[in-house]
Write a structure and sequence with these properties.
This protein has helices spanning 20-29, 84-95, 114-130, 145-148, 169-173, 193-201, 218-232; strands at residues 3-5, 11-12, 15-17, 37-41, 47-52, 56-63, 72-78, 99-104, 138-139, 143-144, 156-160, 180-185, 205-207. It is of the alpha/beta class. The strands form two sheets. Strands 7, 8, 9, 10, 11, 12 and 13 form a seven-stranded parallel sheet that branches. A six-stranded mixed sheet has the order 1-4-5-6-3-2. A hairpin with a 3-residue loop joins strand 5 and strand 6 (56-63). Helix 2 (84-95) runs parallel beside helix 7 (218-232). The radius of gyration is 20 Å and the shape is elongated.
């Protein structure tokens, strides 16, 4: 059944007031007709089976769904060049990420605009709908890498590094009880030594993602895949 994300303030009693873009999406893109059913989701854990009227929808019943990971996962990602961050947001949302914090590191080339942030939020919403998630991950404002490190103090914290004798991320995941994980992945060329040392001073552990050198876009998706698989086994 087709799904769309709504804002909770669109609901009055049992009616959902649909915005013009939502009406266009339901009628023109999804080809639904008046009287057809679809699922409305608020991106914060609630789903409703709804029936389409002309400019609104009738809530028929609430649907109990729990498709989220058993742990919260925060990704700190140094912005890659080009549009690579679009893919990171899309695929990590599908894999169950809770929060993505884009950061500007010493080797970051991209200087994102406010329009980029809105685009990433839209991609996260679309990916959450597609993958039948109940939660839409938070996409934070891009900030300096060092500023971001104090934002996730109540979690197990890891920074991915290459060419260091560090334990594999999977080793730590199999030996931890914390229900919140934060992992940082670098940009092209990896983290600088100063950035790694600063992360260690702020409670991060260095981890490996294997013997191969991964691209800046591949690393966070691979890390998220490992976390998702390890937490759901």
């Amino acid at each position: 059944m087709q799904r769309i994300t709504i804002n909770p303030n669109q609901i009055q009693n049992t009616l959902i007031t649909l915005t013009s873009p939502q009406q266009h999406y339901l009628y023109r893109v999804l080809r639904l007709q008046e009287g057809d059913k679809f699922i409305a989701m608020d991106g914060m854990g609630k789903w409703w089976l709804s029936q389409l009227n002309i400019t609104d929808a009738q809530i028929l019943q609430e649907i109990a769904v729990d498709n989220e990971l058993p742990i919260a996962v925060n990704l700190i990602v140094a912005l890659p060049k080009g549009n690579g961050f679009d893919d990171i947001v899309r695929y990590c949302t599908e894999l169950g990420v809770t929060c993505i914090a884009p950061v500007i590191g010493d080797r970051t080339l991209l200087k994102p605009s406010s329009q980029k942030l809105q685009r990433w939020k839209r991609i996260a919403s679309e990916a959450a709908e597609q993958s039948e998630r109940t939660q839409i991950p938070k996409i934070l404002e891009p900030i300096d890498f060092k500023q971001s490190l104090s934002s996730f103090d109540n979690s197990e914290k890891y920074i991915c590094v290459a060419r260091r004798n560090s334990p594999h991320l999977l080793y730590y995941l199999q030996n931890q009880d914390n229900k919140q994980v934060t992992i940082a992945t670098g940009t092209e060329g990896g983290w600088t030594e100063k950035e790694i040392e600063f992360a260690l001073q702020n409670g991060f552990k260095t981890v490996s993602l294997g013997n191969r050198i991964l691209r800046a876009v591949t690393a966070p998706i691979f890390a998220m895949s490992i976390i998702s698989a390890a937490s759901e086994v």
